[in-house]
Design brief:
Blueprint lengths: L3 H14 L4 H18 L1 H15 L3 H23 L9 H4 E4 L1 H9 L4 E5 L5 H10 L4 E5 L5 H13 L3 E4 L2 H12 L3 E5 L9 E5 L2 E5 L2 H9 L3 E8 L5 E5 L11 H22 L17 H19 L1
Amino acid sequence: MSNVWQYYLLKSISRMVCLLPYSWVLFLGRRLGRLYYHIAARQRRRALEQMQESLGISYEEASRNIASLFTKLGQTFLEVLYTPVLKVENVHQYISIENRHYLSQAVEQGRGVVLLTAHIGNWEWLGAALAMDGFPMAAVIKRQPNDQHTRILNEYRELVGIEIFSRGTAELVSAAKALKQGKILGFLADQDAGVNGLFIEFLGKMSSTPTGPAIFAKKFKAPVVPSFIVRSPEGGHRVLIGEPFYYEDTGNEVEDIRNLTIKMTQIIEQTIRQYSDEWLWFQKRWNTAYTQVAVKQEESIGGKERVGKQA
């Protein structure tokens, strides 16, 4: 049975949310988040366990942080539905951008930009703020389990001026063209990358990490610009843009990709530690076991290095 009705239901709720003052959106979002906290027991337990293990904090402190996270997630959900209210003329009433010059200077180089970010804060509004501020934004996105959720998210992303590419071979070719055209390609680089990921340490545990950002940075000599969005205590958001860095070619491609991926992961990790109640702690970040996959990966790397030395 088609679930297209869910799209129209979300659109109807979105229209009603868009009629509200922003202060009401935040208030109702807090209430919705608290309700979600009590309903989503499995996600709450996973978030608590992963935060305690990763940060080495007490159960009481983790509980406060996770309760805050769920509250903010409720706000984020309603804010996403509130996206049609965002306009070029008013976006800075909701979102401020710090160190804009870093991203501007990276774009001016004309080689495209790899935008490094993560599931921190309202990441949907990160792209919206940058696109509406005049930056040429594109994003490689992962489809949601529910196609109707993907449909409305992509509709709103395109509404604010973001060019969308789904993961896959043909889409990645298009994304590569976007970089060649000098656009900013955003990557949410904090998810489990499965058996094809690179195993490196993240928050104290080995985790399968996506290499896409490093590969694109290498191929196009594009600067990598860390950019995250966090909530302001008074309401609204701050976009935090970091200083650009680059792929360093030492002649050992395997190690160079690894080193750049490690650097990116450490930046994400530092941001999570600083804003520990803003990251999506219940995602299955360590879902791929560091066992035979990692062993085969290391054997493969060792084989390539031996071949390279023989050549």
